[in-house]
Q: What sequence folds into this?
């Protein structure tokens, strides 16, 4: 049996949630004040996910802010960053444009978060 | 001289929000003056997400949040000028501005909303001793380098100050391939959001050293390292704990200051506690017709709150343009025990008012009491936890205000 | 073959170069840093002393008074800000008043004009915010303030406009005396000159040793300063000294010509000739002393701290000596060195003339330097005129000090050209304000890269390896296109 301490980041309360696990199975979740904390902690111990935000290169030499349109696997972030670093996009770009489709094989895209004029 | 009903100084979230709110309250002749190449203000370089949870019920990045307001501005055809620096404002609301195309020009404004935002405290304000090599940046300057200009300001980084920008930059620089050695915090607690401590530091195994500071900076040309030390309860370094850390870059995230140089030019009185103007509940300063909102007024935790305030200021300016200003309530609001400042500092009409305030220290379980100068408790609210980094509010109803016309109201904490 | 090679582009080297540029001479300045005014001239009290400090009969006394008298006119010619604000040497006890009298007598002996001793009431009228414990003061109406690096830069610029050469990043390593002069070996090609002026500041003894002159030594004396923001100046108008001790004139409080308030310096001798680190003790001392002088001073308005090294000689006087024909030392030029600079330059030129340097006036010499457009000081009409001609003047880069891109580009191309971010700052004040370059630093870096046609990562803060960034985050080529 192992216990993992998770700080819930769903809201500014920052509850310290304790997850008890055995053989990869969750036995107990304690310390959360609301159901969102329970869900967060379960996700965090099994498959932590994050939205990534960074910039992508433009062919005119500038950079443009981008993000993943959903949370992606936290453990694979370095891999995604490498992919993004090796792409250059030709402007114009509209906010929300998909610049790298399906970056993780799970259907999550890298999208523009700012406009760029040609 | 050109006449404009409402001139808004600054095209960040506060300025854009205030312009939109004023328009929606009936003002049509509006001009927003922005010094940068695009609208959006500091949000343009805050490319991380987490903005807008309160206002839009979703997590947006800075540029996306700004775009929401820019679209609203466009939809209303509100005029704005980019690359335009305001040089002066007078008490009579004459705004002098300049850009490359039009040169210097003056506008007689009916009302002015100040929305110039804030700036970071630089090294000089800290009295950090040591050498003065290249490689010492505020976190925001580093953010601009990476996110807007696309250049790496450093490779081995020590961050002083655990404010949110410092935490965000710890992750940002790590993701860009830098080695962030540590984040130092002078106080025994971090001023940053828990979410950022978890997602920016813990996720990337970056240590957060509380009650620590930089006591010396090394490097003749570029930074080569720092000496760090633990501090005692009076924030004085314990030199026996000093140790050297090798780095080429120091990022400072040690506080923000409202940028009130123009405010001072217009002779608008400033509150030493907020470093912003004294305002009433509509965010009108002591000079009739000059309003202020956003980080130029006081530093906010969340942009959502900035826009709440911008709405108030925009509506206030619209009302002023229609009806002028008359103080019918004459109520003063003051910070009491355990409270650093309150905003507004003055209430000029009996209308429901939310008073924003910051506490001086971290407390678990306190009562927030609102009293008048006769000592009568007008309101009492329990809080499970308060901290200087988190803005608190109390709502004063019309009834409470009507009973306290001409009086001084204070907001204070009581231990429970 | 140069007629004169000047080692060191501080204010002494600069003024000497300008003085020489009046004549038909081939002159070069050798400077080891990436800009001029990088040593003692960069960080000192910015005072033009009236001349009551030095022992009568010394070179210090003579050249201070002579230099001080010329300073206003020189500043006018060079377009450098100068303000005759008057200085006060304040006594805080009756026991100190005899020292004030002593200074007064010395000043009279040195030929200082408009000196007087003021009592408590008059003092209070002159400086209302001064501590109530002040009992009286020496009042020198001719005391003035100037921006030392502005004066230094303008002098070099004017000298260059009149034909003087400037070699930056040229560190002198050895000097050979040859039949008709000297061969200087350094980081660059050898420089041959008939005359050499050693104006190397804290290194002047080391340079002298290169020609076998061991007659003097220099001890660097660190002085730490704090600079306060414009709104901290309050009603302070005079330069306020304390009654001096043998370590210097004590910690002063003075407005600057750019309307900041300067506090300092400390005075600590050290061996290291480069260590300009500020220290916790030094800064604390500056702050507490300033509070003694002006009790209600707002030191929260500090925008920067810095330290400078004075080149203190072991003789007690300026060391304007010649160990061998054609080689002139300008060593030990500590306070009042800035005030004395014009007179030291003339003194050296006269001595070289006595040794055969032919001073044939150059008819094309122009004593005036085209001043930079000081945008923040122009009227609206003037601004519009220059913006129409060059729209870059309409683009403000430094928000704190209201400095336009046009002024920055001018500073990059005018003599002596600004090659790094600090050089731009010293010429234009961009980055000198309360945010200390937080906003404009990256933009100034971009402008320098553009104007010098170099990559961003090669722009420095102050030369050498003081790089500001490590290059682009995305090196993308078109075949990567997604």
A:
């Amino acid at each position: 049996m192992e216990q993992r301490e998770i700080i819930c980041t769903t809201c500014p309360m920052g509850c310290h949630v304790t997850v008890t696990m055995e053989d990869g199975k969750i036995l107990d979740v304690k310390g959360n004040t609301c159901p969102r904390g329970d869900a967060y902690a379960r996700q965090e111990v099994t498959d932590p996910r994050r939205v990534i935000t960074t910039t992508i290169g433009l062919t005119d030499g500038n950079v443009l802010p981008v993000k993943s349109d959903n949370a992606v696997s936290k453990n694979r972030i370095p891999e995604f960053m490498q992919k993004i670093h090796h792409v250059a996009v030709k402007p114009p770009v509209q906010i929300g444009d998909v610049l790298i489709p399906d970056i993780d094989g799970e259907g999550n895209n890298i999208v523009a978060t700012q406009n760029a004029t040609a | 001289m050109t006449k404009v009903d409402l001139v808004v100084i600054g095209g960040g979230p506060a300025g854009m929000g205030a312009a939109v709110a004023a328009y929606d309250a009936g003002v049509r002749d509006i001009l927003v003056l922005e010094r940068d190449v695009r609208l959006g203000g500091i949000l343009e370089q805050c490319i991380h997400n987490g903005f807008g949870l309160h206002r839009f019920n979703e997590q947006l990045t800075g540029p996306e949040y700004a775009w929401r307001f820019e679209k609203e501005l466009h939809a209303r055809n509100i005029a704005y000028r980019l690359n335009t620096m305001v040089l002066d404002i007078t008490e009579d609301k004459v705004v002098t501005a300049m850009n490359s195309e039009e040169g210097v020009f003056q506008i007689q404004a009916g009302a002015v909303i100040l929305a110039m935002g804030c700036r970071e405290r630089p090294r000089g304000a800290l009295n950090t001793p040591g050498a003065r090599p290249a490689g010492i940046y505020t976190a925001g300057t580093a953010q601009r380098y990476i996110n807007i200009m696309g250049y790496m300001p450093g490779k081995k980084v020590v961050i002083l100050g655990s404010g949110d920008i410092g935490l965000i930059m710890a992750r940002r620089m790590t993701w860009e391939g830098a080695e962030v050695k540590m984040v130092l915090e002078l106080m025994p607690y971090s001023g940053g959001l828990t979410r950022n401590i978890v997602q920016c530091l813990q996720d990337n195994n970056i240590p957060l050293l509380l009650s620590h500071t930089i006591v010396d900076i090394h490097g003749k040309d570029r930074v080569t390292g720092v000496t760090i030390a633990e501090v005692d309860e009076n924030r004085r370094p314990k030199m026996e704990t000093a140790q050297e850390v090798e780095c080429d870059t120091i990022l400072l995230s040690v506080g923000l200051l409202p940028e009130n140089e123009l405010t001072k030019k217009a002779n608008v009185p400033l509150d030493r506690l907020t470093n912003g103007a004294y305002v009433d509940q509509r965010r009108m300063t002591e000079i009739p017709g000059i309003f202020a909102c956003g980080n130029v007024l006081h530093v906010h935790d969340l942009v959502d709150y900035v826009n709440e305030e911008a709405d108030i200021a925009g509506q206030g300016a619209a009302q002023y343009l229609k009806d002028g200003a008359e103080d019918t309530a004459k109520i003063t609001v003051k910070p009491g025990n355990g409270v650093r400042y309150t905003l507004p500092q003055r209430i000029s009409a009996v209308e429901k008012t939310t008073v924003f305030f910051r506490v001086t220290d971290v407390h678990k379980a306190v009562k927030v009491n609102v009293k008048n100068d006769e000592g009568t408790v007008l309101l009492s609210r329990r809080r499970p936890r308060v901290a200087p980094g988190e803005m608190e509010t109390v709502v004063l109803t019309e009834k409470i205000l009507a009973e306290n016309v001409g009086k001084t109201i204070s907001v204070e904490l009581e231990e429970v | 073959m140069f007629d004169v090679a000047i080692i060191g582009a501080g204010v002494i080297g600069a003024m000497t170069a300008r003085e020489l540029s009046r004549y038909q001479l081939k002159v070069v300045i050798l400077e080891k840093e990436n800009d001029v005014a990088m040593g003692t001239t960069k960080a000192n009290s910015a005072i033009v002393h009236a001349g009551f400090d030095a022992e009568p009969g010394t070179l210090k006394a003579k050249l201070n008074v002579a230099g001080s008298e010329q300073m206003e006119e020189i500043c006018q010619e060079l377009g450098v800000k100068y303000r005759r604000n008057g200085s006060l040497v304040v006594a805080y006890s009756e026991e100190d008043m005899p020292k004030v009298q002593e200074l007064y007598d010395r000043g009279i002996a040195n030929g200082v004009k408009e000196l007087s001793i003021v009592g408590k009431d008059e003092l209070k009228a002159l400086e209302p915010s001064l501590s109530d414990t002040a009992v009286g003061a020496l009042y020198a109406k001719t005391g003035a303030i100037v921006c030392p690096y502005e004066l230094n830069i303008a002098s070099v610029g004017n000298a260059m406009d009149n034909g003087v050469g400037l070699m930056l990043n040229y560190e002198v390593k050895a000097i050979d005396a040859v039949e008709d002069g000297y061969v200087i070996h350094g980081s660059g090609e050898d420089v041959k000159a008939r005359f050499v002026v050693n104006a190397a500041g804290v290194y002047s003894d080391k340079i002298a040793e290169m020609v076998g002159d061991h007659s003097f030594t220099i001890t660097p004396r660190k002085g730490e300063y704090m600079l306060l923001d414009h709104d901290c100046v309050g009603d302070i108008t005079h330069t306020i000294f304390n009654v001096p001790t043998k370590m210097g004139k004590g910690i002063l409080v003075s407005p600057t010509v750019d309307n900041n308030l300067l506090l300092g310096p400390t005075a600590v001798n050290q061996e290291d000739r480069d260590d300009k680190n500020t220290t916790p003790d030094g800064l604390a001392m500056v702050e507490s002393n300033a509070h003694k002088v002006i009790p209600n001073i707002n030191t929260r308005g500090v925008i920067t701290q810095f330290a400078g090294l004075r080149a203190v000689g072991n003789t007690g006087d300026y060391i304007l000596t010649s160990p061998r024909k054609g080689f002139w030392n300008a060593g030990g030029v500590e306070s009042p060195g800035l005030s004395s600079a014009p007179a030291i330059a003339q003194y050296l030129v006269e001595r070289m003339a006595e040794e055969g340097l032919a001073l044939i006036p150059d008819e094309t010499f122009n004593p005036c330097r085209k001043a930079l457009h000081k945008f923040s000081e122009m009227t609206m009409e003037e601004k519009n005129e220059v913006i129409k001609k060059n729209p870059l003047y309409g683009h403000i880069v430094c928000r704190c000090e209201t400095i336009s891109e046009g002024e920055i580009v001018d500073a990059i191309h005018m003599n002596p050209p600004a090659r790094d971010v600090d050089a731009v700052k010293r010429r234009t004040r961009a980055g000198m304000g309360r945010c200390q370059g937080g906003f404009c630093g990256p933009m100034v870096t971009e402008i320098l890269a553009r104007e010098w046609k170099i990559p961003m990562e090669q722009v420095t803060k102050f030369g050498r390896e003081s790089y500001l960034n490590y290059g682009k985050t995305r090196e993308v080529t078109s075949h990567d296109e997604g």
DSSP finds two helices and ten strands in chain A. Residues 2-46 of chain A form one domain. Chain A touches chain B at residues 7, 9, 12-14, 50-55, 57, 61-63, 65, 67, 74, 77, 81, 95, 113-115 (CB under 8 Å). The CA atoms of residues 29 and 86 of chain A lie 41 Å apart.
